[in-house]
Amino acid sequence: MLHFHYYDTALSRYQYREKLTELLKKTYFKNDTEMFDTLKKRQNMALQNARKLYLKQYQLPLKEQNPVTMVFKLVERLTVA
Question: How many whole angstroms separate alpha carbon 55 and alpha carbon 35?
């Protein structure tokens, strides 16, 4: 979802599926083999939004960090290597 917009509110798995289907303009499937290609052009936005979300949440106790992701750190590390 961070590939499309900045979100800082928790959602259930069901809500994520609905929202991703809406954003993608096609039914979201977890194991969609075309997802990487679909989202590749939005990678920079996702990295920016994920970093912003992390910086907002990281100082909170772990159990209160919802939503949060650190996948952006892995992606940045892989793209620099």
Answer: 26
Residue type, 29: F
**Looking up tokens 């798995």, which residue turns up?**
13
Taking residue 6's Cβ as centre, other Cβ atoms within 10 Å add up to: 14
Q: What is the pLDDT, as a whole number, of residue 81?
A: 63
Q: Count the alpha carbons within 13 Å of 40 in the hemisphere toward its beta carbon.
A: 6
Compute CA 18 distance to the chain's CA centroid, rounded to the nearest angstrom.
15
Task: Give the confidence band of 75 by pLDDT, cuts at 50, 70, 90.
Answer: very high
- Sole residue written with tokens 């620099």: 80
Quick: pLDDT tens for 44-71: 999 999 999 999 999 999 999 999 999 9
Count Cβ atoms below 10 Å from residue 35 Cβ, excluding itself: 15
Whole-model pTM: value is 0.89
